[in-house]
Amino acid sequence: KETKLWGGRFEEGVTDAVERFTESISYDWQLYKYDIMGSKAHASMLASQGLITAGDRDIILEGLDQIERLIQEGKFEWRKDREDVHMNIEAALIERVGEPAKKLHTARSRNDQIVTDLRLWCRDAIDKILIRIKQLQVSLVMLASKYVDLIVPGYTHLQRAQPVLLPHLLLSYVEQLERDAGRLVNCRERNLKFTAPMKNSIDAVSDRDFVLEFLAANSIAAVHLSRIGEEWVLWASEEFGFLTPSDKVSTGSSIMPQKKNPDPMELVRGKSARVVGDLMTVLTLCKGLPQAYNRDLQEDKEPLFDSVKAILGMLEVCTEFAQNISFNSKRIQSSLPAGYLDATTLADYLVKKGVPFRTSHEIVGRSVALCVSKNCQLAELQLDDLKAVHPVFEADVYEYLGVENAVNKFISYGSTGSNQVKKQLEDWRIQLGIS
Ligand code: ARG
């Protein structure tokens, strides 16, 4: 066995169990690009401070480039007995270029290296996620554009509430995703700029709040995606029948030949558990640590990598799902008369006639009760029936009944009114660069 780079004071090597337990190369090799980037910057700093010669610096830089190429070509041997990505690269560099490489670790610790590598990795990961969020937003806006006039039931408590335009619902996801992106941009700007040194070296090496912020932002995004997943799974059911995923995004059953399941969206819902769990892992990991570096921090990598892998996959699959579903306009329209979606509009009608809202709520409640007993819709009640409930009803009441009339009554900012929704759809198309 080779002597460890830190082995000077040791008489015996570690046991196999300790070696297996403490190694991190099996996953932190993924940081090699950033580790090499950091080492190159470090070598340049050492030269500019007069701690190594320009000649040694150039040998180091050249050696690091060669190692990077070897890794990219899959020709680099990662050794568990060399513990981690830092030692693997440093030991290989010493093997390659000899003495000058032994000067590279002047004035730095692996603890400095790992936190630098991780920040650089997070910065690229955030950029990848931001691209995927935008792709999903684009596909949602395109989907919304196909159904500009389609009215769907709005729900609260999963009970029918008021009618809304489908694009209004789809744009609500787009808004949420925009805030998800904003949180990631915010995290990137606060923690990952690399425009100046950190002011406090203890802080620099000991905190992982940038990982936590990133994982928290991912978790919120994952919860949003999970809710889309749940809604689409529900809408794809026989009971709702509001949307049909194409074969390309559905899977079958091993026993029931008739089945066509929306598994991808179920897994979007499922993977959100992972992303939230990853945040919990690192929060718990950090909570008992004294300053500064503690080896516990090695345990932040796997949840971080896992969270990013999961969220990238979730975004990709949601995008493909949005590109491969169709809404069943006929089925949706034929379902609209149920559930008294126009009841609140009727209460607004009475308010216009001067009735206080609490009173009009009560009057419409009694009108709905009448419909329930007659098994009819509000629009099917005769004017005399309505007048019997309250004399304030007049013939113009029928301009407020029915889902189309109800939707048309919405005019205020942010509402489901057709002009509002069309304007916002257009704004999103411009913002996202959709021609
Ligand atoms: N592998 C460690 C980590 O991921 C970095 C190396 C620090 N090791 C050490 N013995 N100080 O945090």
TrEMBL record:
InterPro entries: Arg_succ_lyase_C, Argininosuccinate_lyase, Fumarase/histidase_N, Fumarate_lyase_CS, Fumarate_lyase_fam, Fumarate_lyase_N, L-Aspartase-like
A Pfam family reported for this protein in Swiss-Prot or TrEMBL: ASL_C2
Domain Fumarate lyase N-terminal: 8-191, 192-277
Residues in Argininosuccinate lyase C-terminal domain copies: 340-408
Gene3D superfamilies, sorted: Fumarase/aspartase (C-terminal domain), Fumarase/aspartase (Central domain), Fumarase/aspartase (N-terminal domain)
HAMAP family noted in UniProt: Arg_succ_lyase
Protein name as catalogued: Argininosuccinate lyase
Annotated organism of origin: Urochloa decumbens
